[in-house]
Predict the 3D structure of the following.
Amino acid sequence: MSPIRQVRQVQITFDCASPERVARFWCEVLGYVVPPPPDGFATWDAYNDSLAPEDRDASFVCQDPSGAGPRLFFQRVPEGKTVKNRVHLDVRVGTGLVGEERLAALEAECARLVPLGAVRVRLLLADENDESCLVMQDVEGNEFCLD
């Protein structure tokens, strides 16, 4: 009999040009929050100002206020996005819905996200294997799906 493995928490890390901008976009998408600043700092701006100039604005975090979802970490990298993501998030807005009801849920969420800076890429209609989903991009062009 094999030992029972402990479930581990997962953090999802995004490489990006503007960590705070991308993090705040995902806070809006997922209902996440920015955690309190480190001990000894009243605000994140005060913490950021305490860093060496080359380290300022280098990262940002958001998290599920309930603690159930993964923490999202955004880190500044010098290169821009050049190819399709190998990993992407599926934002589950149509779970349990099918047909027109599912499409309406996907379209409603798309309409909410576009003013935040998201870009609609394409609608993938249901087939014999999968339900419909809507491919989107975040504020820096990272793909995600409304599923």
